[in-house]
Design brief:
- The protein is built from 10 helices and 5 strands; from the N terminus they run βααβααβααβαβααα.
- By secondary structure, it is mainly alpha-helical.
- It has one domain: Rossmann fold (3-Layer(aba) Sandwich).
- α8 packs antiparallel against α9.
- The chain is globular, with a radius of gyration of 15 Å.
Length: 161
């Protein structure tokens, strides 16, 4: 089982990688808060990625699972989507795909396995689902549309060699 937080799901959808993800994962699991943030609010705003994600949800490829636990220590520190994603990952003992630095720190404290958008892109390359040129183009597009440091960009660029 793999659990996605909002940002990586949005970024990978905008990069056109949603179909490719299903070569890695049978299904994508999200919390109710992530569903609301990405799909419901996105649909209200007319975001194209929200339409794509809603279609995958209707097909059963994206599953929403409700969180059954609470953690009052971190509840007010994180956005609701990150909060629920961390709780859900802990409940299900699943890897969490998330990008937020503060949320990653908390996940690490709670011994939750996590990766980010760039690690997923690299995994697509490593598993030969996409080729090197495709990977580098997506890495460049991601760096132009998201905040990542030059050193992080370079680290993932060099992995393609």
């Amino acid at each position: 089982m793999i659990i996605f937080d909002s940002s990586p799901l949005i970024h990978l959808t905008r990069l056109g990688k949603l179909d490719y993800l299903f070569h890695l994962y049978e299904e994508i699991v999200i919390s109710k808060a992530v569903y609301k943030e990405v799909i419901e609010v996105g649909m209200q705003k007319g975001e194209s990625d929200a339409i794509i994600l809603q279609n995958y949800h209707k097909k059963g490829k994206i599953r929403v699972i409700h969180v059954h636990t609470e953690d009052p220590i971190i509840k007010d520190v994180l956005h609701q989507g990150e909060y629920e994603s961390i709780l859900l990952s802990k409940e299900k003992d699943a890897i969490l795909i998330m990008d937020d630095k503060k949320a990653r720190f908390i996940a690490k404290q709670r011994k939750i396995r996590y990766n980010g958008t760039l690690a997923v892109l690299y995994k697509l390359l490593h598993k030969e689902i996409i080729n090197k040129d495709h990977y580098l183009q997506n890495l460049q597009r991601y760096s132009e549309n998201s905040w990542i440091s030059y050193s992080l960009y370079e680290k993932f660029r060099k992995l393609a060699d």
